[in-house]
Amino acid sequence: METDDLIKNSENLCATANGILKDTKAVEVFSQLGKVEIIGSLRLKLMYRLDIDLLVISEEIKKDKALEITKQFLDSGLFRTVALADYQTFPGHDMPLGFYWELVVIRDGKEWKFDVWYLKPDERYTHLVSDSIKKFESLLAQHPEKAKIILEIKHAYFDGVKYKNGVKSFDIYTAVLEKGVNSVEKFSRQIQ
Fold first, then answer.
1. Which of 47, 117, 130, 157 could covalently link to 163 via disulfide, CB atoms 3.0 to 4.6 Å apart?
2. Could you report the per-residue pLDDT of 8-31, keeping only the tens digit for each?
3. How many other C-beta atoms are found inside a 10 Å radius of the C-beta of residue 180?
4. How far apart are CA 51 and CA 192, in angstroms?
5. Domains with residue ranges and CATH for the chain
6. How far apart are the first and last CA of the chain?
7. Is the pTM of this model over 0.85?
8. Residue 51: exposure state from Cβ atoms within 10 A (0-12, 13-18, ≥19)
9. In 25-123, which ranges are continuous DSSP H helix?
10. Could you report the per-residue pLDDT of 40-82, keeping only the tens digit for each?
Protein backbone atom coordinates (compact mmCIF):
# COMPACT_ATOMS: atom_id res chain seq x y z
CA MET A 1 0.00 0.00 0.00
CA GLU A 2 1.35 3.43 -0.91
CA THR A 3 2.00 5.95 1.88
CA ASP A 4 -0.83 8.23 0.75
CA ASP A 5 -3.16 5.22 0.79
CA LEU A 6 -1.99 4.35 4.32
CA ILE A 7 -2.80 7.86 5.50
CA LYS A 8 -6.24 7.79 3.84
CA ASN A 9 -6.86 4.32 5.28
CA SER A 10 -5.95 5.59 8.77
CA GLU A 11 -8.33 8.54 8.39
CA ASN A 12 -11.13 6.19 7.31
CA LEU A 13 -10.44 3.81 10.21
CA CYS A 14 -10.47 6.71 12.68
CA ALA A 15 -13.82 7.88 11.31
CA THR A 16 -15.24 4.35 11.58
CA ALA A 17 -13.85 3.94 15.12
CA ASN A 18 -15.41 7.24 16.20
CA GLY A 19 -18.71 6.10 14.69
CA ILE A 20 -18.50 2.85 16.64
CA LEU A 21 -17.80 4.75 19.86
CA LYS A 22 -20.83 6.93 19.21
CA ASP A 23 -23.15 4.06 18.26
CA THR A 24 -22.16 1.79 21.16
CA LYS A 25 -22.00 4.65 23.69
CA ALA A 26 -18.93 2.88 25.09
CA VAL A 27 -17.38 6.04 26.52
CA GLU A 28 -20.66 7.01 28.24
CA VAL A 29 -21.11 3.51 29.67
CA PHE A 30 -17.54 3.25 30.95
CA SER A 31 -17.84 6.78 32.39
CA GLN A 32 -20.05 5.23 35.08
CA LEU A 33 -16.83 3.70 36.44
CA GLY A 34 -14.48 6.67 36.20
CA LYS A 35 -12.63 8.96 33.82
CA VAL A 36 -12.40 7.48 30.32
CA GLU A 37 -9.42 8.20 28.09
CA ILE A 38 -9.18 7.22 24.45
CA ILE A 39 -5.64 5.96 24.00
CA GLY A 40 -3.59 4.16 21.37
CA SER A 41 -3.82 4.53 17.60
CA LEU A 42 -7.20 6.22 17.59
CA ARG A 43 -6.02 8.98 19.90
CA LEU A 44 -2.87 9.45 17.80
CA LYS A 45 -4.88 9.23 14.56
CA LEU A 46 -2.52 6.53 13.29
CA MET A 47 -4.84 3.57 12.90
CA TYR A 48 -3.97 0.46 10.95
CA ARG A 49 -5.63 -2.35 12.91
CA LEU A 50 -9.34 -2.50 13.72
CA ASP A 51 -8.96 -1.82 17.43
CA ILE A 52 -10.08 0.81 19.88
CA ASP A 53 -8.15 1.26 23.13
CA LEU A 54 -9.69 2.83 26.21
CA LEU A 55 -8.43 3.43 29.73
CA VAL A 56 -10.93 3.86 32.58
CA ILE A 57 -9.35 5.48 35.63
CA SER A 58 -10.97 5.42 39.07
CA GLU A 59 -9.80 5.82 42.68
CA GLU A 60 -11.73 2.65 43.50
CA ILE A 61 -11.81 -0.46 41.34
CA LYS A 62 -14.95 -2.37 42.19
CA LYS A 63 -15.82 -5.81 40.90
CA ASP A 64 -19.57 -5.33 41.32
CA LYS A 65 -19.41 -2.20 39.14
CA ALA A 66 -17.32 -4.02 36.53
CA LEU A 67 -19.93 -6.79 36.42
CA GLU A 68 -22.75 -4.24 36.13
CA ILE A 69 -21.05 -2.57 33.15
CA THR A 70 -20.43 -5.97 31.55
CA LYS A 71 -24.14 -6.77 31.86
CA GLN A 72 -25.03 -3.45 30.21
CA PHE A 73 -22.85 -4.34 27.23
CA LEU A 74 -24.33 -7.84 27.04
CA ASP A 75 -27.88 -6.48 27.26
CA SER A 76 -27.22 -3.89 24.55
CA GLY A 77 -27.07 -6.58 21.88
CA LEU A 78 -24.42 -4.55 20.03
CA PHE A 79 -21.42 -6.80 20.62
CA ARG A 80 -20.43 -10.21 19.31
CA THR A 81 -18.08 -10.68 22.27
CA VAL A 82 -18.23 -9.23 25.75
CA ALA A 83 -15.36 -10.66 27.80
CA LEU A 84 -14.20 -9.51 31.24
CA ALA A 85 -10.92 -10.54 32.87
CA ASP A 86 -10.32 -9.98 36.60
CA TYR A 87 -6.65 -9.17 37.14
CA GLN A 88 -7.45 -7.57 40.49
CA THR A 89 -8.45 -10.80 42.23
CA PHE A 90 -6.22 -12.96 40.01
CA PRO A 91 -3.08 -10.96 39.21
CA GLY A 92 -1.25 -11.96 36.04
CA HIS A 93 2.46 -11.82 35.36
CA ASP A 94 3.33 -8.32 34.17
CA MET A 95 -0.36 -7.35 34.00
CA PRO A 96 -1.95 -4.30 35.64
CA LEU A 97 -4.09 -4.80 38.74
CA GLY A 98 -7.62 -4.13 37.58
CA PHE A 99 -10.20 -5.35 35.10
CA TYR A 100 -9.85 -5.83 31.37
CA TRP A 101 -12.62 -6.00 28.75
CA GLU A 102 -12.41 -7.35 25.25
CA LEU A 103 -15.45 -6.18 23.34
CA VAL A 104 -16.00 -7.14 19.71
CA VAL A 105 -18.42 -5.32 17.45
CA ILE A 106 -19.10 -6.00 13.77
CA ARG A 107 -19.06 -3.01 11.44
CA ASP A 108 -19.42 -3.35 7.67
CA GLY A 109 -18.77 -7.09 7.97
CA LYS A 110 -15.49 -6.55 9.81
CA GLU A 111 -14.60 -7.39 13.40
CA TRP A 112 -13.56 -4.41 15.54
CA LYS A 113 -12.05 -5.06 18.96
CA PHE A 114 -12.08 -2.84 22.03
CA ASP A 115 -9.26 -3.27 24.56
CA VAL A 116 -10.32 -1.58 27.79
CA TRP A 117 -8.52 -1.40 31.14
CA TYR A 118 -10.22 -0.28 34.40
CA LEU A 119 -7.42 0.85 36.74
CA LYS A 120 -6.51 3.10 39.64
CA PRO A 121 -4.63 6.32 38.81
CA ASP A 122 -1.56 5.19 40.75
CA GLU A 123 -1.29 1.84 38.92
CA ARG A 124 2.04 1.52 37.08
CA TYR A 125 0.36 0.77 33.74
CA THR A 126 -1.92 3.82 34.08
CA HIS A 127 1.11 6.10 34.37
CA LEU A 128 2.96 4.34 31.56
CA VAL A 129 0.03 4.65 29.14
CA SER A 130 -1.03 8.18 30.10
CA ASP A 131 2.50 9.57 30.08
CA SER A 132 3.45 7.82 26.84
CA ILE A 133 0.36 8.88 24.90
CA LYS A 134 0.87 12.53 25.90
CA LYS A 135 4.55 12.37 24.94
CA PHE A 136 3.76 10.73 21.57
CA GLU A 137 1.04 13.34 20.85
CA SER A 138 3.49 16.14 21.55
CA LEU A 139 6.23 14.62 19.38
CA LEU A 140 3.77 14.03 16.52
CA ALA A 141 2.59 17.64 16.75
CA GLN A 142 6.23 18.74 16.41
CA HIS A 143 7.00 16.23 13.62
CA PRO A 144 3.78 15.39 11.73
CA GLU A 145 5.80 13.95 8.84
CA LYS A 146 6.71 11.00 11.09
CA ALA A 147 3.14 9.72 10.86
CA LYS A 148 3.94 8.31 7.42
CA ILE A 149 6.82 6.09 8.55
CA ILE A 150 4.80 4.87 11.55
CA LEU A 151 2.03 3.72 9.22
CA GLU A 152 4.57 2.18 6.82
CA ILE A 153 6.08 0.13 9.66
CA LYS A 154 2.63 -0.93 10.87
CA HIS A 155 1.80 -2.05 7.33
CA ALA A 156 5.09 -3.95 6.95
CA TYR A 157 4.68 -5.75 10.29
CA PHE A 158 0.97 -6.53 10.18
CA ASP A 159 0.24 -10.27 10.14
CA GLY A 160 -3.53 -10.12 9.68
CA VAL A 161 -4.42 -9.74 13.34
CA LYS A 162 -1.47 -8.31 15.28
CA TYR A 163 2.05 -7.23 14.39
CA LYS A 164 4.74 -9.82 13.58
CA ASN A 165 7.58 -10.78 15.90
CA GLY A 166 5.74 -9.57 19.01
CA VAL A 167 6.00 -5.94 17.86
CA LYS A 168 3.56 -3.58 19.57
CA SER A 169 2.39 -0.17 18.38
CA PHE A 170 4.23 1.25 21.41
CA ASP A 171 7.51 -0.14 20.00
CA ILE A 172 6.86 1.52 16.65
CA TYR A 173 5.98 4.90 18.21
CA THR A 174 9.03 4.80 20.47
CA ALA A 175 11.39 3.88 17.62
CA VAL A 176 10.15 6.56 15.23
CA LEU A 177 9.29 9.41 17.60
CA GLU A 178 12.04 9.01 20.21
CA LYS A 179 14.86 7.13 18.51
CA GLY A 180 14.72 8.71 15.06
CA VAL A 181 14.01 5.53 13.10
CA ASN A 182 12.97 6.69 9.64
CA SER A 183 12.45 3.53 7.59
CA VAL A 184 11.05 0.01 7.81
CA GLU A 185 14.57 -1.34 7.27
CA LYS A 186 16.02 0.63 10.20
CA PHE A 187 13.14 -0.50 12.40
CA SER A 188 13.78 -4.13 11.41
CA ARG A 189 17.47 -3.80 12.31
CA GLN A 190 16.66 -2.15 15.62
CA ILE A 191 14.30 -4.86 16.86
CA GLN A 192 16.58 -7.80 15.99
1. 157
2. 999 999 999 999 999 999 999 999
3. 10
4. 26
5. 3-191 (3.30.460)
6. 24
7. yes
8. buried
9. 26-30, 40-44, 63-76
10. 999 999 999 999 999 999 999 999 999 999 999 999 999 999 9
